[in-house]
DNA sequence: CGGATCACG
DNA sequence: GACGTACGTGATCCGA
């Protein structure tokens, strides 16, 4: 007796949209979003695994929509016209859905001019006609029309997300009518997503009641004439044509030509290859293990370890349903191995490949990644599973630290690099680092391009920015280890000493070095296990995957490029500043009547206020006179010549010590360029910060300071190009607070401060424009009457009136501030348009100063942070966009919050400028559509100064 | 090592 | 009843 055939038809297109919204935004080791693909893969697995079970499939096919157009558009041109574009991180998953289907060796149906629903209907009827049972894997309400039995062959539906079978009773529960009348109900109620008109004002309730009463759509429409006068009657009569059109649109075509014969859809279970290749490519490791192990259904998926995915029920995406945190054995430093032979190194490389997720840490001879030499590398594959590979050690621990003992046995550096390179560059192995940008730059100098990567420091930042203070903003490894693991790692000081007694890492004895280095990798691996799963649960994946993680290699490359600085020019400036400073100092001493240290605010204060008798106040804590710029400017206004001279002296000494002298020091002897280091976790708002040297505060506001910018130059034959976002924060404020007047002004390309002046004062002249500008900035920073009064040199009462006028003219600003603060008080954090969180733990402080400080920062953070997100997105897209255009010689060198600086061949300027402008202007898209344009200003020249 | 000052967006 | 006023950074200097 032949078993009954059972055809499963998978509605792939509708499944992936649902999977996308139900599953966390996971990514594979390449950073490609694969959340929906993962859900789809596990679903196919489960279905294929049910082969030959009771009611399971004997035959199976996947049906997908080929395009958004179908024959229904010819009937009704507005059909599906209101469909929003799919989310940006779903788009790259569409082709992967097809890859997954092929990997399972399943037939795939995609036909032009009809929709997946029509193909499903056609196949279902064909199978039914042959006496086969059919299960439609979908929860689409349109398909419910097909459910039921005919000639002893039944069609049902399966909602895999709810693990629910839908048969006639379920359809009746939902629509109040049997399946064959569902089309009539749908025609009456319409569908806003598909833009099916239906009868205006008729919803599911009324529709099913009418059909149930009258037995069909036509009967219901005919009966309208005899109804007693009502809104409903009018509507039925008036929109009859709409309903009839809708009936045609919701009717499924059951007679489509069938491209694949149903007997060819026979299911063979779960294949080995090429499924294994697909699972491996996307890091679906637990499925891969299951495949290796034979079969078994993926009940407890653990893929993309450690971002745990739960495909059943609702857990996994909801805030309250946290996964238990992983627990590990206590750190055991004696478990680490010192790898000193090629044989052991090969062993560890194999172990890493099998582990697929490893932590990496490099030990170097210095802190500067551009100068440091590689001293060793540590790897971790699990808790207490870590090793240290010494490569440049001088001391094996046999002698004292002041006496070189014999050089220890080590794998030769070149051999080790050659052996490790394929592992560190392998797509199949995720490399985790704590501040991995550093390791990227060190290893890049040895010819290794590490990828794919994860970074525990940035994970921590994207989850917990603002939650704690301290060294690296609370995201340093020691702090993270304490906080998440309750473990104190060996400190660098304990290993290398401190101050004058500090030794380079290469002189640390191997046993000690192994304990320290391998522990760092071990701890990093453990931290990743803690932090990565939180990303999906706490909605941090968007910002991490889409903004910050892609930026790591980009910023690393900018740091390696560095920028050329004209040393001779700086030296000349230093000299000029020195002579001028000496002259000023002499004059100041004369004016003071005695010699003193001009650079000492304490001494200066005493000279100004005690000796010379100027009036001024003491500063709170230190009991010291304040002598800052505003005080000196006031004294100067009162005619004190010495104040002028001191201001001038300060400017010159500042420029000399901080810039002209320091920048010469910062020139890298190997590259002849200056390589700053950007911190991706430096600013709570998500901005980058720049150190060693800080290239984000090079003078520009005064002519004398600007001379320093003239020393930043391109290589021969090249120019520097500077591209700025103009007024980006004000534009974002106009968008986020929804201020029509400001949005309009930006749209028209108006002078925004002049427009503000007109709105506030009725006219814009030099004076009112300047005041309006101050007020505009005050808004971005969280306004107070005293602050504004101080800036505008007016009384607080007057300032308050201005603020009131501003809020009255732009009520959106006031409600933005109010709503932002409400949200922060409620949730504890603010959010940018791209979902970056900043926490404000002191927002509810009893201390007023503290609380108000938090409030001002909280008002500013979404604006400053959104601006940071936008330029980061532009940076991540910039080089691919330029390379696509064949511009391979353009180098992105610097970022200064709203400005990007490039170095490029003179001949490339014309081609590169529009691309740079477009990438920057469109950086918010498609994730966020701004209601204001983003204006870009571009300049080029033979120096950074000339490029402005 | 903290405070004061000042360079930038 | 007192608090102390614009957001975000980093480098340098002085002086305890």
From TrEMBL:
GO terms for molecular function: 3'-5' exonuclease activity; 5'-3' exonuclease activity; DNA binding; DNA-directed DNA polymerase activity. CDD domains: DNA_pol_A_pol_I_C (cd08637), DNA_polA_I_Ecoli_like_exo (cd06139), H3TH_53EXO (cd09898), PIN_53EXO (cd09859). Residues 3-268 form the 5'-3' exonuclease domain. PROSITE patterns: DNA_POLYMERASE_A. Residues 705-908 form the DNA-directed DNA polymerase family A palm domain. Residues 290-332 are annotated as: Disordered. InterPro entries: 3'-5'_exonuclease_dom, 5-3_exonucl_a-hlix_arch_N, 5-3_exonuclease, 5-3_exonuclease_C_sf, DNA-dir_DNA_pol_A_CS, DNA-dir_DNA_pol_A_palm_dom, DNA/RNA_pol_sf, DNA_polI_H3TH. Residues 336-536 form the 3'-5' exonuclease domain. Its EC number is 2.7.7.7. It catalyses: DNA(n) + a 2'-deoxyribonucleoside 5'-triphosphate = DNA(n+1) + diphosphate. Belongs to the DNA polymerase type-A family. In addition to polymerase activity, this DNA polymerase exhibits 3'-5' and 5'-3' exonuclease activity. This is DNA polymerase I. The gene is polA.
């Amino acid at each position: 007796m032949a078993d009954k055939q059972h055809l499963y038809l998978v509605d792939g297109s509708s499944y992936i949209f649902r999977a996308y919204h139900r599953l966390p935004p996971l990514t594979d080791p390449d950073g490609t979003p694969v959340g929906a693909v993962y859900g789809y893969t596990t679903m196919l697995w489960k279905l294929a695994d049910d082969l030959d079970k009771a009611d399971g499939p004997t035959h199976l096919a996947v049906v997908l929509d080929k395009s958004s157009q179908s024959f229904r558009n010819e009937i009704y041109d507005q059909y599906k016209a209101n469909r929003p574009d799919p989310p940006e991180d779903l788009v790259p998953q569409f082709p992967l859905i097809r890859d997954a289907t092929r990997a399972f060796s399943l037939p795939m149906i995609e036909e032009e001019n009809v929709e997946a629903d029509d193909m499903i209907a056609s196949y279902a009827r064909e199978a039914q006609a042959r006496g086969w049972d059919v299960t439609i894997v979908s929860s689409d309400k349109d398909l419910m029309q097909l459910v039921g039995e005919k000639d002893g062959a039944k069609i049902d539906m399966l909602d895999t997300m709810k693990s629910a079978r839908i048969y006639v009773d379920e359809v009746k529960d939902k629509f109040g009518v049997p399946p064959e009348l569902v089309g009539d109900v749908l025609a009456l109620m319409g569908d806003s997503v598909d833009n099916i008109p239906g009868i205006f004002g008729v919803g599911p309730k009324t529709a099913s009641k009418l059909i149930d009463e009258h037995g069909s759509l036509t009967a219901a429409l005919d009966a309208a004439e005899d109804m007693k006068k009502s809104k409903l009657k009018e509507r039925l009569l008036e929109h009859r044509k709409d309903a009839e059109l809708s009936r045609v649109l919701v009717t499924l075509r059951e007679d489509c030509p069938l491209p694949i014969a149903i007997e060819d859809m026979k299911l063979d279970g779960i294949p080995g290859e090429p499924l294994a290749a697909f699972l491996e490519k996307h890091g679906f490791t637990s499925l891969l293990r299951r495949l290796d192990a034979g079969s078994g259904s993926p009940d407890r998926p653990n893929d993309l370890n450690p971002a745990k995915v739960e495909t059943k029920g609702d857990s996994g995406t909801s805030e309250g349903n946290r996964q238990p945190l992983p627990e590990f054995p206590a750190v055991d430093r004696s478990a680490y191995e010192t790898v000193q032979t090629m044989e052991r190194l090969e062993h560890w490389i194999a172990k890493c490949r099998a582990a697929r997720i490893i932590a990496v840490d490099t030990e170097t001879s210095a802190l500067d990644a551009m100068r440091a030499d590689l001293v060793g590398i540590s790897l971790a594959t699990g808790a207490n599973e870590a090793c240290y590979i010494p490569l440049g050690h001088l001391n094996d621990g046999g002698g004292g630290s002041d006496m070189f003992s014999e050089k220890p046995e080590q794998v030769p550096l070149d051999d080790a690099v050659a052996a490790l390179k394929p592992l560190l560059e392998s797509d199949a192995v995720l490399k985790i680092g704590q501040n991995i940008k550093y390791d990227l730059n060190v290893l890049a100098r040895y010819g290794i391009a590490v990828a794919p990567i994860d970074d525990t420091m940035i994970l921590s930042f994207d989850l917990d920015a603002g939650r704690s203070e301290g060294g690296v903003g609370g995201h340093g490894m020691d702090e993270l280890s304490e906080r998440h693991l309750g473990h104190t790692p060996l400190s660098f000081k304990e290993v290398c000493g401190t101050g004058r007694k500090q030794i380079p890492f290469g002189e640390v004895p191997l046993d000690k070095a192994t304990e320290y280095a391998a522990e760092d990798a071990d701890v990093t691996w453990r931290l990743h296990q803690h932090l990565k799963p939180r990303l999906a649960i706490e909605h941090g994946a968007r910002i991490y995957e889409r903004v910050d993680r892609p930026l790591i290699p980009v910023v690393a490359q900018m740091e390696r490029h560095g920028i050329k600085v004209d040393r001779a020019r700086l030296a000349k400036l230093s000299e000029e500043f020195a002579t001028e400073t000496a002259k000023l100092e002499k004059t100041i001493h004369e004016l003071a009547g005695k010699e003193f240290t001009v650079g000492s605010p304490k001494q200066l204060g005493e000279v100004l206020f005690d000796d010379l008798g100027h009036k001024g106040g003491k500063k709170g804590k230190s009991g010291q006179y304040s002598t800052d710029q505003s005080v000196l400017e006031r004294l100067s206004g009162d005619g004190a010549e010495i104040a002028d001279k001191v201001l001038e002296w300060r400017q010159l000494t500042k420029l000399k010590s901080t810039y002209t002298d320091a920048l010469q020091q910062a020139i890298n002897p190997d590259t002849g360029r200056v390589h700053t280091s950007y911190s991706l976790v430096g600013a709570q708002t998500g901005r980058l910060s720049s150190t060693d040297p800080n290239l984000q505060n090079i003078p520009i506001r005064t002519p004398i300071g600007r001379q320093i910018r003239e020393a930043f130059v391109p290589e021969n034959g090249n120019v520097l190009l500077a591209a700025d976002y103009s007024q980006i924060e004000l534009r974002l404020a106009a968008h986020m607070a929804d201020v029509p007047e400001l949005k309009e002004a930006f749209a028209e390309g108006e002078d925004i401060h002049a427009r503000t002046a007109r709105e506030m004062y009725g006219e814009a002249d030099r004076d009112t424009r300047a005041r309006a500008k101050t007020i505009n900035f005050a808004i971005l920073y969280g306004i107070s009457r005293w602050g504004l009064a101080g800036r505008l040199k007016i009384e607080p009462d007057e300032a308050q009136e201005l603020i009131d006028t501003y809020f009255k003219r732009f009520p959106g600003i006031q409600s933005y501030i109010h709503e932002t603060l409400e949200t922060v008080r409620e949730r504890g954090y603010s959010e940018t348009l791209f979902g970056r969180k900043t926490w404000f733990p002191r927002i509810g402080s009893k201390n007023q100063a503290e609380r108000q400080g938090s409030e001002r920062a909280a008002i500013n953070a979404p604006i400053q942070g959104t601006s940071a997100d936008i330029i980061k997105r532009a940076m991540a897209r910039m080089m691919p966009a330029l390379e696509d255009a064949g511009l391979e010689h353009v180098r992105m060198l610097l970022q200064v919050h709203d400005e990007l600086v490039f170095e490029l061949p003179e001949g490339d300027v014309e081609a590169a400028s529009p691309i740079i402008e477009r990438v920057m202007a469109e950086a918010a898209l498609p994730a966020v559509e701004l209601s204001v344009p983003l204006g870009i200003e571009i300049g080029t020249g033979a120096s950074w100064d000339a490029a402005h």
